[in-house]
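Case study 2.
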Amino acid sequence: MRRELLVAATLVGVGLLISAISLAELRAERPHLAQATQPSPSPPAESKPGGTRPTTPAPEPARPDAEAQKEGAKPALPPAPAEKVAPPIKEK
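Prediction:
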């Protein structure tokens, strides 16, 4: 038991010694902090409230309305397969 106590005290002492040496080196070096980016010379552009972002090309609906289909517009997506169409909901 006495030997285990001596080993434990030695390990604690070595740990404290390593911590003291590390702390002394950190205080002696005075490390410099790195700056991530330089400030930009020009101010950012003004934002306009309520503006919308343009999209190129303009989005189109997946299913055109009935009038557009009469005029010849084709749907962007094919019709759903039969097994993925649910039966109509029954009213209670």
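Residues 47 and 79 are 42 Å apart (CA to CA).
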